[in-house]
Structure formats: structure tokens, C-alpha cells
Design brief:
The complex is a heterodimer of chains A (229) and B (309).
Chain A: E1 3-8, H1 17-26, E2 36-37, E3 45-46, E4 50-57, E5 64-71, H2 79-82, E6 89-91, E7 98-100, H3 110-114, E8 120-122, E9 129-131, H4 136-139, H5 152-156, E10 162-166, H6 173-180, E11 197-199, H7 215-228
Parallel strand pairs in A: 1-11
Antiparallel strand pairs in A: 1-10, 2-3, 4-5, 6-7, 8-9
Chain B: H1 5-29, H2 38-59, H3 80-105, H4 111-136, H5 148-173, H6 178-202, H7 210-214, E1 221-225, H8 233-238, H9 244-267, H10 271-294, H11 300-303
Helix pairs in contact in B: 1-2, 1-4, 1-5, 1-10, 2-3, 2-5, 3-4, 4-5, 5-6, 5-10, 6-9, 9-10
Classes of the chains: A alpha+beta (229), B mainly alpha (309).
The complex binds iron/sulfur cluster (3 copies).
One iron/sulfur cluster (SF4) is lined by residues 22, 25-26, 49-50, 71, 132-135, 151-153 of chain A.
């Protein structure tokens, strides 16, 4: 099994719902708490496992706003694991989930340096490294109804822009989406082979630009159109 | 990258300590006349161990959960940081045996002293190499991900060690050994050349861009919003930015302090000035290490709006 997420950049509206749901679930989850420093003060800072950034792609009139949520990509070739000196960071054989054992981490930061995707953050009060767990404490929880055995961020997304599944199974929803929509990995040139995949925005017609035209020209166009039918 | 002061101190001090120990042992075992004096050898050894130990202790200061530091020996197979920790600890029994052999048996080379000495020197260089590989192995930082990084760490460690050794020998032995003096001069030139090659190399544009980072490779990409209103861990760790003109000034300061002035002071061949030269080099190398971090640009910056790294 190779579990991970597909994120649809066409439909994500950048509401930060996934990040909030993630924080809520994981602050009391297996790696919790996810603490904040100075949360109500001037300069708040805290550990989040999922962050959403917004970009403008291309120039007007072809520009498009793209919201890009990013959490751990559970990379196939996860250098964050190999650099870890304590053995706190590990990748599970059975499903490829990358986790940090909170009882072993010494807070050297090296894994966050090795991660190209900014997926690891030090918890300001515990001093240990926190990262997306792919909600390992939800997806295998047999006490939850079956359709809720999904990551908190996936459950909460109002536009269904996040899809969870097994990338090793060619018939899973994620594999099909990646095939049909030409899913992309971020920064593939570094060779981490991230599992999470991003679906590029569908091509949309370019915004029509208003061009003032004379009444006679418009009438002529209309007549031509009608006659050609 | 944010330059953590404890890491700057650690790499400069331990580099000088390992360089000093290695050069001293080589000189002693090779029969260099000025290094057959047990006072020189013992004080050199104590100074080196003090520098190394001070550095290693300082390196633990940047850990945010140091109570688990003892676990750092457990991933020798994959982690350069783990290897560094293992070699750094292995170094001590051999270095202490070597110094004990001199303390009890004088500067005459015994079989035990020879064996312990060779292993000490090898472990010193291995540790320094592992330290440099922690940085050189990170694909996320192109300014570090190069064989120039270990070359620089080892050359500069030996260089500062050679200055300390020459200063110490002239202080205790009374007169300067010409071979140690020539060695220090040669290593200063070598160190400067390595550093200049590095500075030239990082100036060349290369690597990932905001386009490969976001996957939009056929259009311009601009950051509109980072998604948070105050800085995060990522901003603090990777967003460290220094004005370009300050970087140029720091580069000049580094070249002058670490290489040019010590070289000129050395030419006077006075013992007092030699000590000053050694101290200036260490100060210059602190600036060098600061630059090593300040000029390193992690690819996470691309997601935060930098067009290139
Ligand atoms: S995204 Fe970063 S933290 Fe997650 S597996 Fe890849 S390298 Fe490791
Ligand atoms: S911060 Fe923790 S998990 Fe990361 S490399 Fe260091 S010990 Fe390992
Ligand atoms: S899978 Fe879970 S831990 Fe990962 S981003 Fe989603 S909610 Fe957060």
C-alpha cells in the first residue's frame, strides 16, 4: 500500500478548512499536542501540519489564482527519515506513512532541513518535530464508521478538493484522478518522489476583453451569423 | 538559513581542534624535531580536546529536546549526524590514550602511542568529514549540496589547526619551527583558494525555481498570500535574509580576518604576532561559518515567494 492524498488545484477555494480541521484533530491525536506560542499576543507562532498558500499563475488577462494546500507528501524517497540521527523519524513499510516518534526526537531540526516541502515544524512547547500523520489514528480506527476512516482534512473539505487513497492500487479513486487529470508532483527534480499529487486547474476560456465596436459592425456580424445558419 | 550561534561556535572550534590534533600527531610521529617535546605535545593535545569538547557541548545547545540527545548514536547506517556523534565519541579514548602515553612515557614514540596516535588522527578527520557531510548531503540547499563543502570544512579545519600548532610551538619551544611556519602559510593559501572557489561556484544560477516548486512551469508564478499573518517556524528557520551589500561586506571581512591579515602577520615570523594571527583566523572563520549559513537558501523559500534559490 502507498497511502497519500490527491489535491485538486482546480476546485480548492483556499478556505483553510483542512488546516483548521487538521490542527483540531491532531492536537489531541497520537502526536499531540500541537502547541502555539503566544496565541493571543502580538506575534503568534505555532505548529501546523498543513498550510495553504495562494499564488497568481500567469499574467492578465490569462492569470488565475491558485490555492495550494501542502502537508507531508509521504515521499517514497524520504530524506527526512535517513538524516534523522535518533531513529525518531521513520517510514512505515506497510503503507508508506512517514511518522515521528515523539518519545525519541531530540529536536535537532535536521529533518526539517532535509524536507523540500516545508512539511515539518518544531512544536514550540514540546521541542519535538511534528508533521502530518496522514491521520493514522483515524484511517485505521475501527470504532469509526467506515466512511469516516479518512483524514480529518479530507473529511472537512467543503469542495472535496482532497482525496485520500492507495496509490499502489491502479483502480483506486486517487490513481484514476492522477491518470485522468494528469496529476503532478511538486519539485520532482529533487528526486524525493512525493506520493501526494496535485491536479492542475482545468483549462478555462480566457476572460473576454471588452472591445468597443460600432453599431453597424455589430449588426453586420449578427446578420452574417443568422444567414450562415 | 538562520545561523544558530551555537552551531557556528561548534563547527569552528571543533574544526580547529581536530585540525590541530591531526597535524600535531602527524608531525610527532613523522619525527619533526620541534614536535618531540612532550610539553608541546601535551599542551597541544589539551588545547585540542578543550576546543573539541567546548564545541560539542555548544552544539547540544541548539537542540530543542536535548534529553533525547543520547539517542543520536542509533542511526549510524543512514545519518551523517549519527556518524558524526559516533566518531566524535570514539575519538576520546584514543586521544586520551595517545596523550597518556606521552604523559607517562615522554615524547619517544611507543607502539601504543603510535597506534593510538594514528587512530586519533583518522577519527579526527572522519568526524570533521561527517560534520561537513551533514550539510553537503542536503539536496534542499544547493549552496551546501556539493563536494566543495567537505573540502572547505577539512581545509579550513587543518588551516586553523596549523596556525594554533605553530603559535603553541613557538610559545613553548621558544623559537618558531620553520616547517610548521611554512605549513601554516601553505594551508592559509589553500584555505583561501578553497573559499574563493566556493564563493565563485555559489554565484552561478542553478537549481529549483518557483515554477518547478508549484508545478506551473509554463507561466509566471507569484505568491499572493503565505496563508498566515505572523511568522511561522518555516519563516524563522528558512526565511533568514541578509541585504546583498551586507553580504559583500561580510565576505570582505571574512577574507581579511581569516586569510589576509594572518598571512601578513605570519610573514613577520614573530611569536606574539603568530598568536594574534591564530586568534584572528578563528574570528574570521566564525564570520565564514556565519556566511555559510546566511548565504544558504533552502527550497522552501520558493513556496514563500522567492523566484529562485
Ligand atoms: S514531504 Fe517532507 S516530511 Fe514528508 S516525507 Fe517528504 S521529505 Fe519527509
Ligand atoms: S528533529 Fe527529531 S525527528 Fe527530526 S531529525 Fe532531529 S531527532 Fe530526528
Ligand atoms: S492527513 Fe491528517 S495530519 Fe495530514 S494534513 Fe490531513 S488532517 Fe492533517
Amino acid at each position: 500500500m502507498k497511502l497519500g492524498l490527491v489535491v485538486d488545484l482546480d476546485t480548492c477555494v483556499g478556505c483553510h478548512g483542512c488546516a483548521t480541521a487538521c490542527k483540531q484533530w491532531n492536537t489531541s491525536g497520537t502526536i499531540g499536542p500541537l502547541s502555539d506560542e503566544n496565541p493571543y499576543g502580538k506575534d503568534p507562532n505555532g505548529a501546523w501540519l498543513n498550510r495553504i498558500r495562494t499564488y497568481e499563475v500567469d499574467d492578465t488577462p490569462n492569470s488565475k489564482t491558485v490555492n495550494m494546500p501542502m502537508s507531508c507528501m509521504h515521499c517514497d524517497n524520504a530524506a527526512c527519515v535517513t538524516v534523522c540521527p535518533t531513529g525518531a523519524s521513520y517510514k512505515r513499510e506497510e503503507d508508506g506513512i512517514v511518522l515521528v516518534d515523539q518519545d525519541k526526537c531530540m529536536g535537532c531540526n535536521l529533518c526539517s532541513w532535509a524536507c523540500p516541502y516545508g512539511a515539518r515544524e518544531i512544536d514550540p512547547s514540546q521541542g519535538t518535530m511534528k508533521k502530518c500523520t496522514l491521520c493514522v489514528d483515524r484511517i485505521y480506527d475501527e470504532k469509526l464508521p467506515e466512511d469516516e476512516r479518512k483524514p480529518a482534512c479530507v473529511m472537512t473539505c467543503p469542495t472535496k478538493s482532497r482525496v485520500f487513497g492507495d496509490f499502489d492500487d491502479p483502480n483506486s479513486e486517487v490513481s484514476k484522478l492522477v491518470r485522468d487529470r494528469a496529476g503532478k508532483q511538486l519539485m520532482p527534480e529533487l528526486g524525493y518522489n512525493p506520493v501526494n499529487t496535485y491536479l492542475p486547474p482545468r483549462n478555462k476560456p480566457v476572460v473576454e476583453m471588452y472591445e468597443p465596436r460600432s453599431v453597424a459592425a455589430s449588426v453586420k456580424d449578427w446578420v452574417n451569423k443568422v444567414i450562415s445558419r | 538559513m538562520h545561523p544558530a550561534f551555537s552551531v557556528l561556535i561548534f563547527t569552528v572550534m571543533s574544526g580547529a581542534g581536530y585540525g590541530l590534533m591531526t597535524l600535531m600527531i602527524i608531525g610527532h610521529l613523522a619525527g619533526l624535531p620541534q614536535l618531540q617535546d612532550s610539553t608541546v605535545l601535551l599542551s597541544g593535545g589539551v588545547l585540542a580536546i578543550a576546543l573539541i569538547t567546548g564545541g560539542l557541548l555548544s552544539s547540544t545547545l541548539h537542540l530543542t529536546n536535548p534529553k533525547n540527545a543520547w539517542r543520536a548514536f542509533s542511526r549510524f547506517k543512514t545519518s551523517w549526524l549519527s556518524r558524526e556523534a559516533v566518531f566524535a565519541v570514539l575519538f576520546y579514548p584514543f586521544a586520551l590514550t595517545y596523550l597518556a602515553a606521552i604523559f607517562f612515557g615522554g615524547s619517544e614514540v611507543t607502539a601504543l602511542g603510535l597506534l593510538a596516535g594514528i587512530l586519533t588522527a583518522v577519527l579526527a578527520m572522519l568526524t570533521l568529514f561527517c560534520t561537513s557531510m551533514i550539510y553537503a548531503s542536503l539536496k534542499t540547499i544547493r549552496q551546501w549540496n556539493s563536494s566543495l563543502t567537505p573540502v572547505n570544512y577539512i581545509a579550513l579545519g587543518l588551516m586553523s589547526g596549523s596556525l594554533l600548532l605553530a603559535a603553541l610551538q613557538s610559545l613553548i619551544g621558544g623559537e618558531l619551527s620553520s616547517s610548521l611556519y611554512t605549513l601554516a602559510l601553505a594551508l592559509l593559501v589553500l584555505g583561501a583558494v578553497c573559499k574563493l572557489v566556493y564563493l565563485f561556484w555559489i554565484g552561478k544560477p542553478a537549481g529549483s525555481t518557483i515554477n518547478t516548486a508549484t508545478g506551473f512551469t509554463q507561466a509566471n508564478v507569484r505568491l499572493l498570500d503565505q496563508g498566515h499573518t505572523s511568522n511561522s517556524f518555516l519563516n524563522n528557520e528558512f526565511g533568514y535574509t541578509v541585504a546583498a551589500n551586507k553580504l559583500v561586506r561580510m565576505r570582505l571581512l571574512m577574507l581579511v580576518l581569516a586569510f589576509v591579515v594572518p598571512f601578513l602577520l605570519l610573514l613577520t615570523s614573530s611569536s606574539v604576532l603568530l598568536i594574534i594571527a591564530a586568534l584572528l583566523t578563528l574570528a574570521g572563520l566564525l564570520v565564514e561559518r556565519w556566511l555559510f549559513f546566511a548565504e544558504a537558501r533552502h527550497v522552501v523559500r520558493l513556496f514563500h515567494g522567492d523566484q529562485t534559490v
